[in-house]
Design goal:
Blueprint: E1 5-16, E2 19-30, E3 34-38, H1 45-52, E4 60-65, E5 68-69, H2 75-81, E6 83-86, H3 98-109, H4 127-136, H5 152-164, E7 170-174, H6 182-195, E8 200-204, H7 208-214, E9 217-222, E10 225-230, H8 232-235, H9 239-244, H10 248-258
Parallel strand pairs: 3-8, 3-9, 6-7, 7-8
Antiparallel strand pairs: 1-2, 1-4, 4-5, 9-10
Length: 260
Amino acid sequence: MTQETILETHQLIKEFKGFVAVNQVSLKVKRGAIHALIGPNGAGKTTFFNLLTKFLIPTRGQITFNGHDITHEKPSEVARRGVIRSFQISAIFPQMTVLENVRIALQQGSGLSYHFWAPESSLHHLHDKAYALLKEVDLESFAHQKGGELSYGRKRALEIATTLAMEPELMLLDEPTQGMGLEDVARVTDLIKKVSSGRTILMVEHNMKVVSSIADTISVLQRGQIIAEGPYQEVSQNPLVLDAYMGRADQALEGAHAGH
């Protein structure tokens, strides 16, 4: 039985004053999969993400989620459907504890976001759920530490927890390992694999070792168009992909392969 499609774009186009940033992109994301979007800088990956989360409106084309046409919906409507983007918009509150950060996300998810200054006692019912989320991302021992004091990798783990608090059906991860050292990259890669259970993930990622180790399907964008798609072994051998990275991909892809 083939996997069901949860998100689909059909001939998606985004033009900026004559410049075509996303050019007729038709993409299918399967339910329960980890789908990676890669490509050189300027390939249109961030613009594509912005179209999915409705921060940009497509020039032409269609986006469907769970069979519903969401092309012209507002960001809040798409979020309510369960399409939640992490990292770029779920920044943590550095002066609040790790637990408080997750609790605020839970408030937002449960419609209590306007009771931001609610008395502490009224929020106790969220504690158990917040702790469960912290346990899922291996941060329970940091619950009472301030968010701003966490290491870079653990801040990303906290951002994943706040994203999970919104109960995403589809998680959009925007360069989750960007700027990290090897140890943090490994931790966050393992974490993404762990939280993907029972969820669908679409991620933009530059680190080919990360992509090769966890992605079920990889789509390669170049100049706003998909030039290759498939599992890592297939995509990494595609001449168009190697050419798109102007020789650098050859080394990066081989290096990632050697890392297994």
